[in-house]
Design goal:
The protein is built from 13 helices and 13 strands. It has 371 residues and is an alpha/beta fold. The chain has a single domain, classed as NAD(P)-binding Rossmann-like Domain (Rossmann fold, 3-Layer(aba) Sandwich). The protein has a 7-stranded parallel β-sheet with strand order 3-2-1-4-5-6-11, sandwiched between helices. Helix 6 runs parallel beside helix 7. It is globular, with a radius of gyration of 19 Å. The C terminus is likely disordered. The structure holds nicotinamide-adenine-dinucleotide (NAD). Nicotinamide-adenine-dinucleotide binds next to helix 3, strand 2, helix 6 and strand 5.
Length: 371
């Protein structure tokens, strides 16, 4: 099994050519040694591709990942590049952390997490161990190692609760969270703020909204877009949990990566929290119809009960703060990013079928304690 990397590298090259990062950003990253926890994941693998270009041949991208998000514990999502080093290990494990921090790391991008809402409901203790204890360990090592920046993958769904005013602005916070994952992600931001206040660790809290794009393998705990593409390519029915008029702020993974790269560069981001999103909302039903149309899937959509924890009828982020602080500017229109995502599926369809992680007969969307 081997991923078609040339396709993904070409997408990244095209993206970077359109983005035209400033010389200051390019020079800042050149020759650096950077740690990406969760670098074998959906977003992490894209960050690896982009940063490996920016650090150049004399830089190094270290990935620390335990492959828990991928079936068969495979390194399938790690690109074979000469300046990328994979360390298979766990953020909860001192041996793994000691090994990684031997490398004189300048920046830490902390993306490893126990993904995501439903998984954390099914396994709340492990979710807390990874997302809270593992996170604290990583902060400790980063602090002792005097890293230049610690950039954290927080989550919009973990901060703003169910019925806030739209668009979601950073200064509103809800304590009424509906999954252990959301709680742990918010706690992660709070620990970051503590390390900033007490030790002056240069932390940055980036709040992602629903990512989509090449690199995310479908599965019972994964996001709706890869799962819908998978079912549509399998000529199955797309299950909408709810009424379909619910909306999400779907964000291209490369735009999220752009935000991370800029968050690592701009000193104005230190100590701050901000949304990284597209700033546009799309209904689940219209997205499902687009998936079916594009894949020529004629099996009708079906409707299932809304999941108890899924209490957000609409999600739309304000991206004004990120625009102001780090000059964040999403450049991928949904229709274009979405087509690239489908192309990636088609290019890797046999492997994706083997790696997709659906428990037979169980769809987390409708799973309950008795199933
Ligand atoms: N994908 C989204 O839409 C989204 C939205 C909001 C926030 N986020 C956050 O962004 C980050 C990346 O998300 P993603 O979609 O790439 O998730 P992912 O599951 O694809 O990637 C996470 C990676 O972390 C690794 N990992 C998990 N536990 C680990 C551990 N204990 N030690 C080492 N590695 C471990 C997994 O194997 C996986 O490769 C996560 O922190 C997630 O919470 C993602």
């Amino acid at each position: 099994m081997k991923q078609n990397w040339s396709f993904r590298i070409q997408i990244v090259d095209t993206y970077l050519n359109s983005l035209k990062l400033s010389n200051d950003i390019n020079n800042y990253y050149l020759n650096k040694t950077i740690l990406i926890t969760g670098g074998a994941g959906a977003i992490g693998s894209n960050l690896v591709l982009v940063l490996s270009k920016l650090v150049g041949d004399n830089g190094l991208i270290l990935i620390l990942d335990n492959f828990s998000s991928i079936k068969l514990k495979s390194s399938w999502n790690v690109p074979p590049l000469s300046n990328v080093m994979l360390i298979e290990g766990d953020i909860r494990n001192d041996r793994s952390l000691k090994r990684v921090f031997k490398e004189n790391i300048s920046l830490v991008f902390h993306l490893a997490a126990f993904f995501a809402n439903q998984n954390s409901i099914d396994f709340p203790e492990e979710s807390a161990e990874v997302d809270t204890i593992g996170h604290i360990k990583l902060l400790e090592y980063s602090n002792i190692s005097n890293v230049e920046k610690f950039i954290y993958a927080s989550s919009g769904c973990a901060i703003y609760g169910s019925y806030p005013q739209l668009p979601l602005k950073e200064d509103f916070i809800s304590m009424h969270l509906t999954t252990p994952y959301q709680i742990n992600k918010m706690v992660g931001e709070m620990y970051n703020n503590f390390y900033r206040h007490h030790y002056n660790l240069p932390i940055v809290n980036c709040r992602f909204f629903n990512s989509y794009g090449p690199g995310e393998i479908p599965g019972q705990y994964r996001n709706v877009i890869p799962n819908f593409i998978y079912w549509a390519l399998s000529k199955g029915s797309l299950p909408i949990t709810g009424e379909g008029n619910e909306t999400r702020d779907f964000t291209s993974v490369l735009d999220l990566v752009q935000g991370l790269v800029k968050a690592g560069f701009y000193n104005e981001a230190v100590g701050e929290n901000f949304n990284l999103a597209s700033g546009k909302e799309i209904s689940i039903k219209s997205m499902a119809e687009l998936v079916n149309k594009t894949t020529q899937n004629t099996t009708p959509i079906c409707f299932k009960p809304r999941r108890k924890w899924d209490t957000k009828p609409r999600l739309l982020a304000s991206i004004e703060k990120a625009k102001l602080l780090i000059k964040y500017e999403p450049i991928i229109e949904f229709e274009k990013g979405f087509l690239e995502n489908i192309s990636w599926f088609k290019q890797n369809w046999e492997d994706i079928q083997l790696l997709s992680d659906f428990n037979p007969g169980i769809n987390s969307a409708v799973r309950n304690k008795t199933s």
